[in-house]
Amino acid sequence: MNNLITSGLKLSFLLITTLWLLASCSEKAETQATHPNVVLLLGDDHGWDETGYNGHPFLHTPVLDEMARSGVRMDRFYSASPVCSPTRGSIITGRHPNRYGTFTPGYSIRPEEISIAEIMKNTGYVTSHLGKWHLGPVKEASPTNPKQFGFDEYLSHDNFFEMNPHLSRNGADPVVFKGESSEILIAEAIDFIERAKEKNQPFFIVVWYGSPHEPYSAKAEDLALYDSLPEDFGNRMVRLTSNETGGPVERLQREVLRERFAEITAMDRSIGQLRSFLEDKGMRSNTLLWYFGDNGTPQEGNATVPFRGQKGRVYEGGVRVPSVLEWPAKIKTPFVTAMHGVSSDVLPTLCDLTGQALPDRPIDGISLLPMLERKMDTRPEPIAFWNGRPRNNGEGLTDYIDPELQKGTSPLVKLMNGIPTRNFKNFIHPDIQEQDFSGPRTLLGNQYKLVIHGGTGEEAEKELFDINADPAEENNILSDFPEIADNMEKALIEWQQSVLESLIGNDYP
Questions:
Q1: Per-residue pLDDT at 22 exceeds 90
Q2: Whole-angstrom Cα distance, residue 279 to residue 276?
């Protein structure tokens, strides 16, 4: 009798196990069939005009140009910040970076933030981060490394990098990878995709290039494309980092641009390598491939920017960036959109696409899926920008994370205080004070853009632009439309209050 009972229990266990495995495989197959693979590509300091499809007179970007013709070309897409680390935080969280103290380069994200990689992983995706992280150290002990934010694997750098980059694999000590950095990252992406395909799992890959951030270096074949730039182009001296000393140097801009353009061309070629691989493997149709820049063109590269400002400024030249998106299975008819989009829209868009709820906290982005489906052509709410700083630059504030855990390990060419690595910081903000509302800030609506600099109250310098009629922001029309400016400022202050409530920790349980 006991043997019969034992045999029955074994059969029941085997049946239950088999049913569970079948359900699991069915669920995985359903996820693979219904959800696209997703690859996010981010250029470092790549300005809006620096593509062939946007009319650059010299640059060769055949792959981005082809993506602009075959997919969705977003002519009015913005980085959440005019500098890089904050924009990267906005991509990961869907939230403005001031909410969690990632004010500017050198400020880390906070461990309590919810990442798009975590959400995608919970949906059944395998996840990978490649390249520049810049939201905290990538070392294994760091509470803000890519693995802590949901990436199964990473090959990353604390900051920016050039040819032959030092990269850390999954938090290990950085090692040198010989070659052109953009191609190195894409080779790693291809390896990851092949392994995901073997497991029949959809993949989510974030490739954050080191290009075209200074100091510049490139292959001879890419440099040769720009040997004949006109003598009157870039005919001024500019300041940047020396590849030889790691310190500042002045050079003729035309020579600098030759190197910068070569880096952009190499990055473009690497995207082509990825597209060709996906095509060869029959995976391109159901892969969403999305490229954009992390902020506007820096001062040493500013030669053809058609807008006011550059990297570091909240004018169009600092925050308007190139953006193209392909998803052949879904977007069968190419189109160009003038609808405003922003890097904070990535998380809501991917949540919408995969049927996941948004994190239960203030989210600043919106889903662009209706735009991709041609059901939305104007943004339902304005975009707010705020290039803020911690109170008193952090003086008197308590560290949010142990400073030892904030020390970087990845070497880079540019020295800071004599050190070839970067350390990070983040501060506890115990309360909200009037001075916390200061700093360059902007509210961008579908027609008008309000720009405020300086402090609050009467100290603030205000401008209003009709961004459609005047994309170069040359004509301040605030005196003609004071009521519009006042209403926009009230909305901006209300939004800032929400951001500061997040900053003091109200979003975390």
A1: no
A2: 5
Of 347, 344, 368, 369, which Cα lies nearest the Cα of 358?
347
Look at residue 34 in the predicted model and tell me its pLDDT: 74
* Rounded Cα distance, 345 and 79, in Å: 10
Q: For the beta carbon of residue 31, count every other beta carbon within 10 angstroms.
A: 16
Q: At residue 22, what are phi and psi to the nearest 5 degrees? A: -65, -40
Asked whether residue 84 is assigned to any structural domain, the reply reads yes
Q: For residue 348, how far is the Cα from the chain centroid?
A: 14
Is the predicted pLDDT of residue 20 greater than 80, yes or no?
Answer: no
Collapsed DSSP state (helix, strand, coil) of residue 186: helix
Please name which of 260, 273, 152 lies closest in space to residue 206, comparing C-alpha atoms. Answer: 152
Of 260, 294, 402, 403, the C-alpha closest to 42 is: 294
* Candidate from 296-300, 371-375, 457-461 with smallest mean pLDDT: 457-461
Distance CA 492, CA 285 (A): 41
Mean pLDDT of 378-388: 96
| DSSP notation for 317-350 | HHHEE-EEEE-TTT--S-EEE-S-EEGGGHHHHH
Residue 293 has pLDDT above 70, yes or no: yes
Helix (H, G, I), strand (E, B) or coil at 232: coil
Per-residue pLDDT, averaged over 256-281, amounts to 98
What is the extent of the structural domain holding 327? 33-379
What percent of the chain is modeled with pLDDT above 90?
92
Q: How many structural domains does the chain have?
A: 1
Q: How far is CA 16 from CA 28, 91, 319, in A?
A: 18, 41, 55
Supply 257's token pair.
Answer: 């641009």
In CATH, what number is assigned to the domain containing residue 216?
3.40.720.10
Residue 391, domain member (yes or no): no
Residue 271 domain flag: yes
- Residue 458: the pLDDT is 87
Residue 421, in any domain of the structure: no
The model's pTM: 0.93
Say if residue 364's pLDDT is above 70: yes
Sign of CA dihedral 67, 71, 77, 83: negative
